[in-house]
Design a protein that fits this description.
Helix content: 25-40%
Distance between the termini: 16 Å
Oligomer: single chain
Radius of gyration: 19 Å
Order of helices and strands: EEEHEEHEHHHHEHEHEEHHH
């Protein structure tokens, strides 16, 4: 049974994951779950284990114990490439883009990497081949450019774009591979308020329109609480708390983990979200 055939099968799940580096335990029996068509947040103070868990999820790091599932299929021992073929895509903290290529060309390349691999090899040896996409490809790329508000800069080289826009390009490139799950690695890092809000709106539209799932690892807790249906909180390699945003916002353990109980914690965990969760199911557990 897979997530495509059964809506109760999580799009992604990590069960009892443990990671040790020598005598240091980076993750100790952590379990998280991402339902279909939802956005789940993963937060925690510096050193909590977020990056380690993200590496396990994406296949860059094999856990010492525990299992990882995509759509109900055990992928614990699968490579990042195998996970990508099963529908997993990811973005990076620092945009990994091709200087000199336009926004549209990035999405075309990603589309061909998943759907037209033979054509992709021709792109590497045939000058100008990137400018001749097929109709289905053209329509898909056009739709994604509109979805994430990049149509106005579609034919602009990425090396002249601001950081906030290049992060949207990474999201668009991930979507062009037709994923069922996107791992977002601190997409708002370095963005100003306007850029963060633009990114949040694009992510919300994407989940609603594409009916895919996202796992958002982010330092901007207010953004995560405003966007996510469900949130997991790590601290010192263990799962500290989980639940819908309103419960996480008021959890005293989470407040204590973030800067103690003073006014600084209130600033990190505001009483009200800046944006509304994206569906009416935001109070439901993914389990």
């Amino acid at each position: 049974m897979t997530a495509e055939s059964d809506p109760f099968v999580p799009a992604f799940e990590a069960r009892d994951v443990a990671v040790r580096f020598g005598g240091v335990t980076a993750l100790d029996g952590v379990s998280i779950s991402v339902p279909p068509a939802s956005l789940v947040g993963l937060v925690g103070p510096n050193g909590a284990g977020k990056t380690t868990l993200f590496s396990v999820c994406s296949g860059l790091l094999r856990p010492n114990a525990g299992q990882v599932y995509i759509g109900g299929v055990d992928v614990t021992d699968a490579s990042p490439q195998d996970r990508a073929r099963r529908g997993l895509a990811r973005t990076f903290q620092q945009p990994e883009l091709f200087m000199g290529l336009t926004v549209r060309e990035h999405l075309v390349l990603a589309y061909r990497a998943r759907h037209r691999r033979a054509r992709l090899w021709k792109d590497m040896v045939t000058p100008g081949s990137l400018r001749k996409p097929e109709p289905a490809e053209t329509e898909r790329v056009r739709y994604l450019l509109e979805l994430i508000s990049l149509a106005d800069v579609a034919d602009v080289p990425v090396d002249v774009l601001p950081l906030g826009t290049t992060r949207l390009v990474e999201v668009g490139r991930a979507l062009a591979t037709s994923p069922s799950l996107v791992l977002l690695d601190e997409p708002s890092a370095g963005l100003d308020h306007w850029e963060s809000e633009r990114l949040a709106q694009a992510l919300r539209r994407t989940v609603e329109d594409e009916r895919l799932s996202m796992l958002l690892v982010e330092h901007d807790v207010a953004m995560v609480l405003g966007l996510s249906n469900y949130v997991f909180v790590l601290d010192f390699g263990e799962l500290l708390a989980e639940g819908p945003p309103e419960l996480i916002r008021s959890d005293p353990r989470v407040k204590a983990a973030y800067l103690g109980e003073g006014p600084e914690a209130a600033a990190v965990l505001p009483d009200q979200p800046e944006t509304e969760p994206q569906t009416a199911e935001d109070a439901a557990s993914p389990r």
